[in-house]
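> call design_seq(struct)
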């Protein structure tokens, strides 16, 4: 088949609202589960430990501890079975894959939350010379 034809077919399958998350984020993945003739939403929450692939084949891996046992699940980003991905909190990591979390237990397996609303130190610096000038 021609690559242009494949790209055209794939473009119809892409998700309209791609999820905005990265490795290290704590996420809640809402998946559609079919049981008989009923369909329900099941939530899988954990830490994103990796992303791989590109285009329609892009996937991400989520890890959580369930009853003392580590559970990992791989989700395709553009799958119709994935209803939505909610970011619970951002993680500050410096790696593309967090496979080292597999060896850690308890609080060691949690990631540091990204600092939000931090005040820059330069904001308070200009006030001091004005006070020094007023005393003189």
């Amino acid at each position: 088949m021609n690559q242009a034809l494949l790209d055209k077919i794939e473009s119809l399958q892409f998700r309209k609202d791609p999820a905005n998350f990265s490795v290290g984020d704590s996420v809640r993945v809402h998946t559609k589960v079919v049981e008989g003739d009923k369909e329900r939403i099941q939530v899988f929450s954990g830490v994103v430990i990796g992303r791989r692939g590109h285009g329609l084949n892009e996937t991400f891996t989520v890890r959580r501890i369930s009853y003392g046992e580590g559970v990992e699940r791989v989700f395709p980003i553009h799958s119709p079975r994935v209803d939505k991905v909610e970011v619970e909190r951002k993680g500050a990591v410096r790696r593309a894959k967090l496979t080292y979390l597999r060896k850690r237990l308890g609080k060691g397996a949690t990631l540091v939350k990204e600092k939000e609303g931090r005040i820059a130190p330069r904001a308070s610096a200009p006030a001091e010379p004005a006070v020094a000038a007023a005393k003189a």
